[in-house]
Amino acid sequence: MQKNQINKIFFFSSALLSFVSNFAFAQYPEVREKIINLPTFDDRFLHYGYFFGINSYDFKFSYEKDFYLSTLKDIEVIPSTGFNVGLIGDLRVNKYINIRIEPGLYYSKRDLIFQENPLFTNESDRLREVKSTYIHLPLMLKFSTARINNFRPFVLTGISKDFNLSSNHKNTDDNYSNVFRTRPQNLNYEIGLGFDFYLFYFKFSPSIRGIFSMQNELIPDSVNDPADSPWTGGIDKMVSRGFAINLTFE
User: Are 132 and 105 in contact (CB under 8 A)?
Assistant: First the structure.
């Protein structure tokens, strides 16, 4: 994961935790006096909501041994901030566990900078822009603590299925025609944490989560010998790594 992405995760996580810590600290002296909002909200067997937020993805590459020993350089990934929006269905299992489905649309963009190669005829050959528009279908388990006034921390874990509408997998062109291709479907595992705030009319829940691909997403270039491609030759595996911050309203 790139240094600038780690800095983004650290910044957003610190801001979120700082806000929540200050809020929670302010609640404890008033436990007996605080007016409880939505006291029966979590007793519902099924409820719905929606979310929107931001994301940042990069790629993790695994290389064939001989290729990496000959270059000793990674492909550079420059992630951009994308956005996500979707719906939520929440099924209550018991007081502390919920099953959630969160179908959404995730848009992201990554720039790949390849190392110098004699086959590159100009500087633009080193750059490939990878845009992804995912239909993102997670199935999550939500584990919550006991409620403290109008505040409740939780953690999330689960799996998700992605359908990439921008994969170019049906395109007969490849990097020789400036087309970078990825596979149209992908399976991920996800982990995250967040906080429920019970407001007067609805529940507001900011959360942050990591999204980790478990399948190779790369489609090699269609040349006589795919290993000869200066873009995809030598790459054994390419998987997505990302994080998302969601603001949820239920």
Answer: no
Please tell me the distance from the alpha carbon of residue 244 to that of residue 216, in angstroms, as a whole number. Answer: 21
The closest alpha carbon to 98, from 16, 160, 41, belongs to: 41
Q: How far apart are CA 70 and CA 115, in angstroms?
A: 12
Residues 6+ apart with CB under 8 A from 147: 42, 196, 198
How far apart (Å, rounded) are the C-alpha atoms in residues 153 and 146? 8
Residue 127 and residue 113 in contact, taking contact as beta carbons nearer than 8 Å? yes
Instruction: Name the token pair of 11.
Output: 């910044």
Residue owning tokens 């998987």: 239
Q: Which domains does the chain have, with CATH numbers?
A: 3-249 (2.40.160.20)
Residue 182 pairs with which residues in a beta bridge?
218
Residue 34 CA: distances (Å) to CA of 28, 37, 67, 104: 9, 9, 63, 35
Query: Which pTM was predicted?
Result: 0.84
d(CA 26, CA 153): 15
- Fill in the DSSP letter of residue 218: B
Residue 248 tokens, joined: 């949820």
237's tokens = 């595996």
Q: Which amino acid is at 74?
A: D
Cβ within 8 Å of residue 32, ≥6 positions away: none
Residue type, position 56, single letter:
S
List pLDDT tens digits, range 80-134: 999 999 999 999 999 999 999 999 999 999 999 988 888 888 888 999 999 999 9
